[in-house]
Amino acid sequence: MRPARFTLHRPASLHEALALKAQLGDAATFHAGGTELLVALKARVLQYDHVIDIKQLEELRSIQQLDDGTLRIGALCSHYVIANDPLVRRHLPGYAHLSEHVANIRVRVAGTLGGVLYFAEPHADAPTMLCALDARLVLTSTRAQRTVPSRAFHVGEFSTAREDDELLVTIEIPPQLPGDRSAYRPFGHTERPAVGVAAVWSAQGAQRLRLWVGAIAAVPTALAQTEEAAQSLPPNASFDAAWRALEPVVSAEADQLTAHDDLHGSADYKRHLATVLTKRVLEECLK
C-alpha cells in the first residue's frame, strides 16, 4: 500500500523546521531516517498532510564531549554512526555495542537515535539503555527549549512527553565515573527484542546499580528492588557472590513485571527472559 498524498518540506535550518511545524500544527510531522514513520504511513496507520524532512540539518548530527564530560549526541545520528564513533566507543562501550546490533544493517545506517525515541515503539533497544545511563533529552520549539529525563520521556505505547510542536534535538549522557561498567542484552525471535535488560554498575563512592527492563511493557521499567538490594553487596563482590544474593530478589521482582502474550512470546516467557538477561548483564558488569 502507498501512503496517502502529502506535501514534502525540506527546511534548510532548525529554525525553519520549527517554524514550519508551528505553522502547520497537527497536520505535519518530522521525518528523519524514516525506518518507523514510512512503514506507518504506507500502512496508513498514520496520515499527515505535510511531512517535514529534517535529514539535511547537519547541526543535529554531531557527537561531542562537553567540558564536564557529558556526551552530547545529535538526534539525527544513526545507530551505525554512534556504534563507530570514537567518543562513544571510549566512554560508553556498552552503548556502542547496543548500537552495533540494532535490527539489521539497513536500519542501523538509516535509522536515527532521535527517531527511535520520538516514535516510542515499545520493542526498541535504545530507550532502556538510556534510562540506565541517566540520559537527558533536549527538546526545542519556537516557544522554548527544555530538558526531559529519559526515564520520564516515554509515557506509554507510541506516546511520549514531547509536545506536538517540539523537536528532539540532542541526547545528553552524563559522564560515567572511572570504573563504571555498563551492559545491555536483548533477546527475541524477530529483529525487535521480546525483552531487553540494561545495567550500569558504579563501584566508586556509594555503590550503585541501575537496572532497567525494556520491551516487556509499554515503557522501560526499573528493577528498583534489585537496585536497592545491590547497595548491600560487599565492596568488590564477585559476580557469583553477587548473583547468589540478588537472584531471589530478581526472580521475585521479574515475576511482578507487567507483560502480556503477543507475537514476541507469552507473558511468563518474557518474565523468565528478564531474569536470564539480568543475570547476563550483571555478569558482564561484575566480571
Question: If you had to describe this structure to a student in words, what would you say it looks like?
Answer:
- By secondary structure, the protein is an alpha+beta fold.
- The chain contains twelve helices and 14 strands.
- The protein has helices at residues 14-24, 37-42, 79-84, 86-91, 93-100, 105-110, 113-119, 126-132, 150-153, 224-230, 239-255, 267-286, and strands at residues 7-9, 28-31, 50-53, 63-65, 71-74, 136-140, 145-149, 154-156, 159-160, 167-173, 181-187, 195-202, 208-214, 221-222.
- The protein has a five-stranded antiparallel β-sheet with strand order 4-5-10-6-7.
- The termini are far apart.
- The mean pLDDT is 95.
Looking at this protein, list some descriptive labels.
alpha+beta, single chain, 12 helices, 22% strand, 287 residues
Element layout with pairings:
Blueprint: E1 7-9, H1 14-24, E2 28-31, H2 37-42, E3 50-53, E4 63-65, E5 71-74, H3 79-84, H4 86-91, H5 93-100, H6 105-110, H7 113-119, H8 126-132, E6 136-140, E7 145-149, H9 150-153, E8 154-156, E9 159-160, E10 167-173, E11 181-187, E12 195-202, E13 208-214, E14 221-222, H10 224-230, H11 239-255, H12 267-286
Helix pairs in contact: 10-11, 11-12
